[in-house]
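To whoever picks this up:

The nightly regression suite flagged Ankyrin repeat domain 29 as changed. Nothing in the input moved, so I suspect the structure step. Input below, exactly as stored in the fixture:
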Amino acid sequence: CHSGPPWFSHQDGTAPLWIASQMGHSEVVRVMLLRGAERDAARNDGTTALLKAANKGYSDVIEELLKFSPTLGILKNGTSALHAAVLSGNIKTVALLLEAGADPALRNKANELPAELTTNERILRLLRSKEPHRKSVKGFLLPK
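Regenerated output under the current build:
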C-alpha cells in the first residue's frame, strides 16, 4: 500500500505500469496505458515495462504495450526488449517484437546481437528472417 498520486513511483523509479507488466497483468496494463501511463517510463536502472514483460515472456502484456509504440531500441541500461525476449526463450515474445519493428542487428552494451544470446533454433530462424539481407555486387557478398 502507498500514499500519493495514482502514478506514484517507488524510490527506484518503479512505476505501477512497470509492476503490472512484471506481474503479467495485461488488463491492468491496458487500462493504465489508456489512462495516460507513460509507456516508456523506466526504473532508475533503465528497465522499461516492455523490457520487463519481454524478460518474463508475457506476450499478452507485450501486445498491449506495443499498441502504444514503446521504444524498441537500446535503452539507457544498454540492452533492448528484443535482447530480453531472446534471453527468456519465449518464441512468441520474440516474434511480436520483430513484427513491431525491433531490430535484430542492434548490439547491446556487451556488443552482443540478440542471436548471440540463444541456441534455440526457432528463435534463431526468426531473427535471421528479419535481418536486412546483404547486397551482392557481381556475385560478391558485401559486408554489412
